[in-house]
Amino acid sequence: MENILIVGAGGHGQVVADILLQSYRSGTSGKPTGYLDDDPELQGKTFLGLPVLGPFSSISEIQHYAVIVAIGNNQLRKKLFLQYQEKQVRFVNAIHPKSVLANDVKLGVGNMICAGVVLNPGSDIGDNVIINTGATIDHHNQIESHVHIAPGVTIGGEVTVGEGTLVGIGATLLPRVKIGRWSTVGAGAVACRDVPDRTTVVGVPALIKTDNNLTS
Q: Which domains does the chain have, with CATH numbers?
């Protein structure tokens, strides 16, 4: 499996490049060939030895086996993922060789699993998900598509995280909590109870943030 295109040449894209390169060297993944990015200032530049080959729209012009969308913004990442899915593009997972996945973990496609991640038994990960450095996902979790689990997050057992949600750096989700779709759990927050769709919670314990006020 050769010629994996990385969609996005920013920070996330370069982390994905490193994951794929390390996996390739260990014999467990395909080899990345370069990036696509719409930023004109990045065209022709090289990161981690891989060139920026063109804008997002040039995917059909560049030979490739598979792609992974490596953009931190969940909404943009979903938009591009769906656009490429309509073109019947093949997606690949980027799984760092120093992550730990239980044998029965279910993974969709286009996911980024970073160094130090632990995914415990019974967990189900959707498509186009970022599980960032050092995050721990305990048993029987449901992480829906287009979610970003930030570095250092700790998630207890039987938790659900809805589509498109961001769980911020160092946050903790207690067991059996349900986090709604397109919500945000702030950095360092501790979610002790369910969070509705399209809601931001912050603090310890996590409370709903409305403008500059917090409500229980």
A: 4-94 (3.40.50.20), 98-202 (2.160.10.10)
Q: CA 111 to CA 160: how far, in whole Å?
A: 17
Q: Catalytic residue among 12, 64, 96, 139, which?
A: 139
This prediction's pTM: 0.93
Contact present, 87 and 69 (Cβ < 8 Å) = no
Condensed to tens digits (0 to 9), the pLDDT of residues 169-206 reads 999 999 999 999 999 999 999 999 999 999 999 999 99
Annotated active-site residue 12? The verdict is: no
Q: How far is CA 84 from CA 4, 34, 65, 67, 110, in A?
A: 14, 17, 13, 9, 11
**CA dist list (Å): 186 to 28, 64, 65, 137, 169:** 35, 37, 37, 17, 8
